[in-house]
Amino acid sequence: MTDTQPETETSVTIIVDGQEVAARPGELLIDACERAGTYIPRFCYHERMKPVGMCRMCLVEVDTGRGMGLQPSCMIPVAEGMTVDTQSELTKKAQDGVLEFLLINHPLDCPVCDKGGECPLQDQTMAYGPGESRFVEEKRHYEKPIPISDTVFLDRERCILCDRCTRFAKEVAGDPLIHFQGRGNQTEVNTFPDEPFSSYFSGNTVQICPVGALTAKPYRFKARPWDLEEVESTSVSDAVGSRITVQSSRNQVLRYMGVDSDPVNWGWLSDKERFSFEAFNSDDRLTEPLVRTDGDLSPVSWGAAIAAVGQNLAHAEASRIGFIGGSRLTNESQFAFTKLAKGILGTDNVDAQMGDGLPAELVLGLPRATIDQACTPGGTIILMGPDPKETLGALFLRLRHAAVEDGATIIEVTPHRTGLGDYAKHHLYPLPGDTALLAAALVADTPAVDTAGVSAAAITAARSAIAGDGPVTVVLGRASVAEGAAAIADAALALTAIPGVGFLSALHRSNVHGALDMGMSPGLLPGRNSLSAATSAWPNTPTTRGMSTAQMLQAAADGSIDTLVLLGADPISDFPDTDLAEKALSAVTVVAVDLFETASTAYAEIILPAAAPQEADGSFTNLEGRLTKISRKVTPPGTARADWTIAAELALAAGGDLGIENLDDIWTEIAAISTAHAGIDSASLAANQRDGVLITGSLNLPEASGVSPAVADAYSFRLAVSRRMYDNGTILAKSPSSAHLGTGTALHMHPLDFDSLGVTSGVSVTVSSATGSIDLPVEPSTDVPRGVVAVPANQSDVVVGTLIAAGDVATNVRVERGDA
Amino acid sequence: MARFTPENLELAHEIISRYPRKKSAVIPMLHLAQEQDGYVTNDAMAHIAELAEVTAAEVIGTCTFYEMFKTHPVGKYVINVCTNISCQLNGGEELLEHLEESLEIRSGGTTSDGMFTIEDYECIAACTEAPCLQVNYRYFHRISNDEVDEVIADIRTGKLADTIPEHGVLQRVRQTIPAAKLAGVAPPEEVVDAPAWMVRNEPILAARAAAKAAEEAAAKAAEGNAD
Amino acid sequence: MATNQYVPHAAGYVDNEGPKIVSSRFVHEDAFLLERSLATGGYEGLKKALTMAPIEVHDTVRDAVLLGRGGAGFPAGIKWGFCPPGKWPMYLVVNGDESEPGTYKDRLLMEMDPHQLIEGCLIACYALGLSQCFLYVRGEMALAQERIAHALNEAYEANLVGKNILGTDFSVDVVLHWGAGAYIVGEETALIESLEGERGMPRLKPPFFPAAIGLYGQPTIVNNVETLANLPWIIVNGADEYKKYGSETSPGTRLFAVSGHVKRPGVYEAEQGVTTFRDLIYGDNFCQGMKGDDELKMFIPGGASAPWFFPEQVDLPLEARPVGAAGSMLGSGAIVIMDESTDAVKACLRVVRFFARESCGKCTPCREGTTWEETLLRRIYDGHGRPGDLEMLLDIADNISPGPYPGAAWEAEGIEAIPFPPKQTTICPLGPSSVAPITSALRRFRHEFEAKIPQRTSIPVSAS
Ligand SMILES: Cc1cc2nc3c(=O)[nH]c(=O)nc-3n(C[C@H](O)[C@H](O)[C@H](O)COP(=O)(O)O)c2cc1C
Ligand code: SF4
Ligand code: FES
Question: N or C: which end of chain C has fewer CB within 10 A?
Fold first, then answer.
C-alpha cells in the first residue's frame, strides 16, 4: 500500500571492482555502489542535498571514457559500461591521504566530544586511516564552542568544512544564515556578527554534521552514544508525522533524530519536532490522579479517581456529556475513547477539533493527496491554509524543494504572505472571509474580474497555472482562526471543480487526522463511516448527530451540558473564542486527561495523568492518512498510563465494557467496522514502519453552505490570526530550549495603512471587534495586504481570542491609537 | 556612518542595474563600502545584503574570501610589497624588511598614526620590474630602499596626494552607461531568443545545408552506381 | 629606469624587433585614448566583422588556430563551438585576473590599449551571439580599471559599444567588473562564481564546462585578455596572414614576460614555436643574457604552476607541445630565470607558500596539504628539518597529486618526462601545482635540502 514509483526506468550496467552491477540512469556513482553493497567513504556527500565534491574522501579510480583516473564518486553520474575500482592502490592511497589531511587540524578530542562513538570521522579513521600522525606542527586554533543560535553550538576546531550545514541552511531550509568565511586554510563556518542562525530547522545541521562540530544544547554532554538505546517512532509535534528515532539512556529520552522516510520527511525535522521530547521529560508532568476537594487539587488513587469519573458518567444523561479534544492521542486510544463515548455512554458529543478546524465530512470527503503527489515535479500547489513553515515544518521543506528544485508552481491563497511566499509564483491574498468568492473565481470560465480584493490579472495568471500540465494539489486548512470554517469549506468545494485535483489536509494538531478516522467528530464513527450510514456493532450508538466543540461550549455555558471530558485539550488557551471557553468550563464538571496542568485543568474536578507518546505504543495517522507506528521507549512518570487503558477502565466504572485488553484487540475491532483499515494490525504496522500504510476511502462530500461575509464598514480592517511555530502552547512552554522563542504579539499592518491611522512603528494601538478589545504594539509589514491586520495566535498574555466570535465568517476590527 | 551615503546608495543602485542578478553586484558594492569608510564595516555588509536581497551571512562569506577587503580599520596607505618569486630573486624580501624597519611595524601591521599598513604580498603582475610594490594599488617599479623612504616622506607631506588616493579608492574614473546607449540587461530567464544579428547567419547556414545535402546526394548516387 | 614617481602607465614593455600583433600601439603613451586608437586602425576589425556573417567571423578565428593565452592553451575557435546551440542568453566573461606569479602581460594590454581589448570582446560577442560581456579585471589593478572604464565611456559615447553599434542590429553591453584579490578567481569556474557575487571557489567540471553551463547557468565563454586582444588583427588581416607567424601548431605571437636574473627583463612580443628559450634569455633582441653573466641554474617556463626547466631545456621552442612533452607547460607566458646564486629551497618554499595562501579551501588535500607543505619547507629552510622530512614531503605531495608527477625531463639523469597536467585529487589544478616546485627542486637539488637538515649522529648532551 506504500506509494513506490513503478520501476519503469531502464537500468545501466557498471562494473564495480570487477562485478557487473545494475544502476539507475543518472544516479551518482557513490549511490550506485552503495546499493550494490560497496560503501565508499564520504563526508560532504549527503543523499538529500546536491553534491559539492568538497571533502574528496569519496575519490575512487573510475574510467569515465578517458582512462582510469581519480574522481569523486559523489559527483559522477553513472554511465553504461563505467568501470570503477574502489579498492585499487591509488584509490586507497588517495583516501588515506584525505583522511590524514582532515585529521591534521582536527583536535582529536574524541573523549570529550558528543559525537565520539558515532562519528564518521572517527569510524573512518579506524577503518581507512593511517595509524599515527606525522603532523608535528601547530594545529589551527579557534575560540572554543560558540553559540550560533538558541539551540546550536559550533566548535570550529572540530569542523572539517564539509559544507553540509551551510548547504542545508541555504539549499534545504532557505535560511543561509551560516556561511563559510575566510579562505583556504583559514576557512571557517560562522554566522554574521549578531545575526544568529535562527532557523526553524537548525537542529538538522547537528544531525548531519559528520563530526562533533555542531552540537545541540538539549543533548550536549548528556550521554555517550554507546549508552544510548533507540527505537524508531513517529513525531507527534504536528500532523506531518515525521519519522524519528527516539534515543534514551537509563529510562530517559535524550534526543530525537530524523529518519529518512522517502514519502514523508526525508530525514529532516523542524526544531519544534526535534526538541519536543524536552517537554515529555519535564518535571511538571502529571504523575498521579488529582481530585479537587475544597477548591484544591490533591492526589488520589487511580481506583478512586476512575470510580469518581465513572460514577459521574454513568449517572449523567448521555446527551449532557461532551468529549473535547483527543488529537494528542494515538489512533488506538482515540478508538477507545470514541467507543467509550459513542458505544458505551451513547453520546455523539465528541470533537477532536477545537473550533479552528474544518468540517470532518469535508476533510474525509475530498479527494486526498499525498505529499509526493503535491510535490510532483511540474505540478501546481494551491496553498489555501496555514503557513506550512510555521505549522508543518517538514512539509514546508518538501513543498519548498518541489518549488525550488522540481519546478512546482505555488499559488498562495492566504490572508497574507506566508513562509512559502518567497517560492510562490502567484500571491493571491483574498480578504479574510471572502476566500470562497476567490476560489469560485479561480475555477470560473468567465473572464476574470477583481474579486475579494484580488486583481483580475492575478486571477487570470493563477488560472493558467492551475490549467497547466502537472497535477494540482490544494494544501487545505485554516490560515486564520478569525475567518470562519464555512468560508474555507466552501472554497474547497469550489476547487473540486479542478480536474484531478487532490487535497492535502493541513488541519491543526498532531494526530487530528487519526482522530477523524477514529470517529472523534460529531456524526462520525471509526473507519471513515458516518453515523447515519453505519450499522454499528455497538449497543448504545447514538442516532442523532452530536455537538461540535463550539456547540458543546455554548451548551455548557447555557446549562444544557453537565460534564465535559477534556482529552489533552485546553480550550481556554486553544479555542478561538476565549470568553466562551471560560464561561463553559466554569459552568460544568470538567474531567481532564492530560500530561500537564493547563489553563483549562484549573477548572477540572478530576485530572487523570496520561502517558506521553514516547511512553506508550500505538500508531499515528498523518495529514496524508498515512499510518505509522509510535513506539514506547521509556516508562511514564509516576502512575501515568496509556490513554486507551484509561478509557477501558472508565467504561468498566460506568458499567460497560470496551472489550479491549491490548492493542491488537483494538485493531480487530477497527478492522471489523472499517474497510479503510482492513488488514492493519500491530504486525503490519511494524512491517511497514518506515513508510507507513496509507489509508484511503472517503465519505460523501457535504453541500456548500453559501456563506456571505459580514459587510465591513469603511473604517474597519479584517483580522487575520495565524499560528507561529513557537507560541505559548503547552508542549513548547515545557521545553526549556524552545519556551522563550515566541515572537511576542504585535499587530502587523501594511505601512501604507499607517498613515491613515497616524501611527508609527511600535506605537500601542487598541484593536476592537464586536466581542472585545485588546491593546497591542503595531508593526509595519509589507507581507500583509492593505485593509488587513494580522496578529499571531497564542504568543503572550494578550488574548487575541477575545476579538473572535465563534462561528463568524470574518472578524472586522477597528484600530485606534492607544493614546487617542 | 557605515551604511551607504545617499550618493553612494545611488551608485550602488546603478551598479546593481548592470547585472542580470543582483548578487553579482556584491563585490563592486563591497569596494564602494571600502571606498566610503576605508574598510568594510558590518553595517555596510548588512546594507549590501539588503540591496542584493541576500543574507548578511552570505555577504560576509563573500567579503572575507577576498584579500583586498578589510573588515577592520587599516592605514590610510596600504603598502603591498611583492615578495613572490621574481621579486624575491631581485630583492623583494629585503625591500620588505627595510620598510618594516623604517616604519617600525611588522608586515600586517599598521603604524600607530594610522597612516601606513604593510603587507607581504603575492605577485602583483609587475615581475619584470622587480622589486616592486603598490601603495593603495598604485605601482612603484624597480624601487630601491632609498626610494621607498622618499615615497613614504612624500606621502606624509602630501606630495603624492594627487597620484595616490586614500585606501579604498580604486577607480577614480568610473564606468557610466548613458541610459539611451544601454543595450539592455535582462535576467537570463527572460531571454529566450537569439540576439537580432544572428539572423545574418541564416542564408549562410541554409547554403551550407544545401551544399551538404547535395554532396550527400551525390555520394549516394555514386554509391548507387557502384552497386 | 628607477623611479619613485607614480608610473602613469605600465613599464616593462620592450619594443624589440619583430612582428607586432597585440602590442603595436604600445609605443604610444596615449594609446589608451580612443583618438589614438582610431588613428592607428582601432575598431577596423569590428567594422570588418560587422560586414561578415557572425559564423564567418567564428570560422576565421577557428582557422587562425588562436590558442588561449590564459594557461591551458586551448584553441579559442574550438572552445567557442562547444556552446549548445539554441540556448540563450550566452555570456562572455573576459579573464583579466592575471595573478599567476611571473605573469605580466594582461595588465599591459589593459592599461596600454584597452580599446583593442574592447574591440576583441565585441568581435567575440558578434561571432557567437553573446548577450552581455563582463570584463573581469583583477582587483589590485586600479589603473587598468580606470583605463578600461575611461575607454568604455568613450566607446559608449562613440556608439562603438551598447545599443545598435555603429548603426547596425548588433547591440551588446560591455560591463567592467573587478575582483578583490584572490588568485584562484583566475580559474574560469571560480571566476564565474566570483562574478555571481560568491566566494571564488571552482566548480567541478565535468560534468559541465562553462561553455555549456556557466554564468547564471547559461552557456558562457571565458577567454583570457590576450586571447581576445588578438581578434581585431586576425579579423582585419585574415587567418592565413596570422598563420604566417609562429609555427603550425602554435601560430601567431605571444607576449612573454621574462623576469628574474636576466640583463634586460621585460615583456616581449615574440613569435611562438620559432623562438626558443635560449633566444629569449640570451638573444640581443630579448633579454641579452644572464645578469652578471652568471650561469643559468633553472627557469620556470610558464608561470609558478609549471614544473621547472634546467639548462638542458633552453633550446626548446616556445611552443606548447614540445614544452609539454618535456614535462612542463608554457602556461601563461611567464618565464622566470634563476641563476646559480639562487637557493633552490628558498625559491621552492616561496612558490609553495603562494599556493598555500591562495588555496580557496574547498578541497581537503589542497586546503590542508599545501599549508602542511609550506610549514614543512619552512622548517627545513629554517634549519629545523628532521631526518625523513624529505620523504614525508614527497609523500604529502603525492597525496595531493598521486602517481608519478611530471618533472622536467632530465635525459642526462635518465628520468622520463610524463605529460602535464598531473593526476589530481582536487577539483582544480591549484593544489597539484604546489607539487611542481617541490618535485622540480627536490629531485634536482636534493643535496641543497639535505644540507639544511641538521644531521645528528648522536643526541646532544646539553642544549646550550
Ligand atoms: C589556478 C588557476 C588560475 C588561473 N588564472 C588565470 C588568470 O589569471 N588569467 C587567465 O586568463 N586564465 C587563468 N587561468 C586559466 C583559466 O581557467 C582559463 O583556462 C582561461 O581563462 C581561458 O582563457 P583562454 O582559453 O583564452 O586561455 C587559471 C587557471 C587556474 C587553474
Ligand atoms: S584545488 Fe585548491 S584552489 Fe582548487 S578548488 Fe580545490 S581547494 Fe580550491
Ligand atoms: S563525499 Fe564526495 S567529495 Fe565529499
Answer: C
Q: Minimal CA–CA distance to A415: which of A497, A466, A481?
A: A481
- The Å distance, Cα A567 to ligand 3 centre, comes to 50
φ/ψ of residue C88, rounded to 5 = -115, 155
Q: Which CATH superfamily is domain B77-157 in?
A: Glutaredoxin (3.40.30.10)
Residue A323 to residue A309: CA distance in whole angstroms: 13
| Residues of chain B numbered 22-41 and touching chain C (CB < 8 Å) | 23-28, 30-31
Q: Is C359 in the pocket of ligand 2 (CB under 6 A)?
A: yes
Closest residue by Cα to residue A702 from A513, A536, A496: A496
Q: In which residue ranges of chain C is CATH 3.10.20.600 found?
A: 253-339
Predicted confidence band at C324 (pLDDT cuts at 50, 70, 90)?
A: confident
CA-to-CA distance for A176 and A18, rounded, in angstroms? 43
Tell me the sheet residues that pair with A792: A722
pLDDT in tens, A181-233: 999 999 999 999 999 999 999 999 999 999 999 999 888 777 777 888 999 99
CB C385 within 8 A of CB C456: no
> How far is residue A455's CA from residue A462's CA, in Å, rounded to a whole number?
11
The answer for A569, left when phi > 0, alpha when psi is -120 to 50, beta otherwise, is beta
Domain C344-451 classified CATH 3.90.105.20?
no
- Is there a contact between A507 and A538 (Cβ–Cβ < 8 Å)? no
Share of chain A above pLDDT 70, in %: 97
One-letter amino acid for residue C280 of the chain? L
Contact A719, A482 (CB under 8 A): yes
Residue/partner pairs of A529-534 with CB below 8 Å, 24 or more apart? A529/A673, A529/A674, A530/A361, A530/A699, A530/A700, A531/A348, A534/A673
Rounded to an integer, the average pLDDT of A662-674 is 90
Residues of A in contact with B45 (CB under 8 A): 192
- Whether the ω angle into residue C311 lies within 30 degrees of 0, i.e. cis, is no
Are A571 and A330 spatial neighbours (Cβ–Cβ below 8 Å)? no
The complex scores an ipTM of: 0.93
pLDDT, average across residues C168-189:
97
Say which of B89, B141, B173 has its CB closest to residue C261.
Answer: B89
Q: Residue ranges of the domains in chain B?
A: 6-65, 77-157, 193-226
Is A205 in contact with A83 (CB distance < 8 Å)?
no
Which tens digits make up the pLDDT trace of B119-147?
A: 999 999 999 999 999 999 999 999 999 99
Chain B residues inside the 8 Å CB shell of A191: 57
Task: Look at the block and give the residue holding cell 618554499.
Answer: C349
For B70, name the nearest residue in chain A, comparing CA atoms only: A182
B24 phi, psi to nearest 5 deg:
-60, -25
pLDDT-derived band of residue C321, with 50, 70 and 90 as boundaries?
Answer: confident
Min Cα–Cα distance to chain C from A167, Å: 13
> What CATH code would you report for B6-65?
1.10.10.1590
Fold of domain C25-242: Rossmann fold (3.40.50)
Asked if C281 contacts C287 with a C-beta cutoff of 8 angstroms, the reply is yes
Nearest to A107 by CA among A157, A55, A43: A157
Q: Is the pTM of this model over 0.80?
A: yes
The CATH number of the structural domain formed by C253-339 is: 3.10.20.600
What is the percent of chain C where pLDDT is above 90? 82
Closest CA to A466 of A514, A425, A506, A405: A425
Q: Where in chain C is the domain with CATH 3.40.50.11540?
A: 25-242
Specify the range with the lowest mean pLDDT, choosing from A417-421, C136-140, C409-413.
Answer: C409-413
- What residue ranges of chain B have pLDDT lower than 50? none
Write out residues with Cβ below 6 Å of ligand 3.
A 42-45, 53-58, 72, 74
